[in-house]
């Protein structure tokens, strides 16, 4: 919930104009502005290759009398192709459960959009050594009932809650441990092919000075960037640090 429409559009313009496609290998860049900015930013990125639009949330119903809410198909009509779901702030401040997030994932897939499913443990859970178990339970409850075809359109973002907006980043080894665990879990639920093809992003205080090392980890395919995306130079530096050969989002 940052920036006016004018400020957001200006930020997107700076990013689009300085984005150097030759430096990102086969990576894709997704801009996920507030709902009020989606249409305008969709115009700014129109016809620009490798740039996509995401919303930050949606309602789980296809349509109907849900005053104040927005459906996945409405977001599609604004030009979005992805929707972030289950962000820790949605879980913490709006009481979103794993079950509800699972319903939203279904709604997004039904509208022919791709969910970016966020998961991650809190500080207490990390300190109790329960981080792998917590992430596993979030993924199982929200995603396990998807078919392999449905799951092939899901992006996963691992975001340790204690690292979001705090300036504390998981070390590359800590993040890699969880990413590898997630990939193993995906292979168990679906199969090795589905696990290998899944894009798993890291989020939580990713910055220009740590992005390259994070992205270099075997199971980290890209980043979900919060605070640093509000400064064009920082966001561009992060985009430009993705390793060229990987299929990052
Ligand atoms: P941060 O946010 O990069 O500011 O930690 C990440 C997020 O909100 O997902």
The count of DSSP E runs of length 2 or more, i.e. the number of strands, is 7
Proportion in helices = 40-55%
Number of helices: 12
Structural class: alpha/beta
Main beta sheet, described?
A: 7 strands, parallel
Task: Identify the strand order in the major beta sheet.
Answer: 1-2-3-4-5-6-7
Unreliable stretches: 245-249
Rg over CA atoms: 17 Å
Give the CA-CA distance, first to last residue: 22 Å
Protein architecture, described:
- This protein is α/β, with parallel strands linked by helices and 249 residues long.
- It has twelve helices and seven strands.
- The protein has helices spanning 5-18, 38-45, 72-77, 88-94, 98-110, 123-127, 131-143, 148-151, 172-189, 192-197, 208-215, 232-239; strands spanning 29-31, 51-55, 82-85, 114-119, 155-158, 200-203, 222-224.
- It has a seven-stranded parallel β-sheet with strand order 1-2-3-4-5-6-7.
- Helix 11 (208-215) links the parallel strand 6 (200-203) and strand 7.
- Residues 159, 164-165, 203-206, 224-228 line the site of 2-phosphoglycolic acid.
Keywords:
binds 2-phosphoglycolic acid; alpha/beta; 249 residues
Task: Provide a quick synopsis of the model.
The model is unreliable at 245-249 (pLDDT under 50).
SSE blueprint:
Elements: H1 5-18, E1 29-31, H2 38-45, E2 51-55, H3 72-77, E3 82-85, H4 88-94, H5 98-110, E4 114-119, H6 123-127, H7 131-143, H8 148-151, E5 155-158, H9 172-189, H10 192-197, E6 200-203, H11 208-215, E7 222-224, H12 232-239
Parallel strand pairs: 1-2, 2-3, 3-4, 4-5, 5-6, 6-7
Helix pairs in contact: 1-2, 1-12, 5-7, 7-9, 11-12
2-phosphoglycolic acid binds at residues 159, 164-165, 203-206, 224-228.
């Amino acid at each position: 919930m940052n920036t006016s429409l004018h400020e957001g559009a200006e930020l997107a313009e700076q990013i689009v104009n300085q984005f150097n496609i030759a430096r990102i290998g086969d990576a894709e860049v997704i801009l996920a502005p507030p709902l009020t900015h989606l249409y305008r930013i969709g115009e700014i990125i129109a016809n620009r290759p490798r740039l996509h639009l995401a919303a930050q949330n949606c309602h789980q119903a296809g349509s109907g009398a849900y005053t104040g809410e927005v459906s996945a198909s409405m977001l599609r009509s604004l030009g979005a192709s992805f929707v972030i779901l289950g962000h820790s702030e949605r879980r913490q401040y709006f009481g979103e459960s794993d079950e509800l997030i699972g319903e939203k994932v279904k709604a997004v897939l039904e509208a022919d959009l791709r969910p970016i499913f966020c998961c991650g443990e809190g500080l207490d859970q990390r300190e109790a050594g329960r981080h792998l178990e917590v992430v596993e339970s979030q993924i199982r409850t929200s995603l396990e009932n998807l078919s392999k075809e449905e799951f092939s359109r899901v992006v996963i973002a691992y975001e340790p809650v204690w690292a979001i907006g705090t300036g504390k980043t998981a070390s590359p080894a800590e993040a890699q441990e969880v990413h590898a665990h997630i990939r193993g879990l995906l292979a168990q639920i679906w199969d090795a092919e589905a696990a290998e093809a899944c894009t798993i992003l890291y989020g939580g205080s990713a910055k220009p000075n740590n992005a390259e090392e994070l992205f270099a980890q075997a199971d980290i395919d890209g980043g979900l960037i919060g605070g640093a995306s509000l400064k064009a130079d920082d966001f561009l530096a992060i985009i430009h640090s993705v390793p060229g050969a990987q299929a990052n989002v």
